[in-house]
């Protein structure tokens, strides 16, 4: 009985120490694709990012946003020429994990702790 309890504690300790790989520097700049569903339609967003700008192409429309890095794995994106009130709101993005060619992230309007969404962006180049 005692050995099974110790085994369970050891496994629990091992699992709790695991952290997803986050090599965020590899995804600071480059060209990426991100797909999401909006009103039942799948939309693919292709964007290029450097340290301070992000240029996105969505349905043949080009949007430019400023990028402000908070730390290696978190940044704020804000449209430079918003057309609506909702586009004026900045988006907080946090990279949760990375692979060789993609990253999983969490995003929400800055200050909105309840409506976080998740997605995966694939690095194209």
UniProtKB/TrEMBL annotation:
<keyword id="KW-0732">Signal</keyword>
<protein>
    <recommendedName>
        <fullName>DNA topoisomerase IV</fullName>
    </recommendedName>
</protein>
<feature type="signal peptide">
    <location>
        <begin position="1"/>
        <end position="20"/>
    </location>
</feature>
């Amino acid at each position: 009985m005692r050995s099974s309890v110790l085994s369970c504690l050891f496994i629990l300790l091992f699992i709790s120490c695991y952290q997803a790989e986050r090599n965020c520097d590899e995804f600071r700049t480059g060209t990426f694709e991100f797909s999401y569903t909006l009103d039942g339609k799948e939309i693919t967003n292709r964007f290029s990012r450097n340290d301070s700008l992000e240029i996105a192409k969505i349905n043949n429309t080009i949007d430019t946003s400023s990028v402000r890095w908070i730390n290696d794995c978190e940044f704020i994106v804000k449209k430079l020429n918003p057309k609506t009130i909702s586009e004026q709101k900045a988006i907080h993005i946090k990279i949760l994990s990375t692979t060789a060619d993609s990253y999983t992230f969490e995003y929400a309007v800055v200050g909105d702790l309840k409506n976080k969404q998740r997605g995966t962006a694939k690095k194209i180049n």
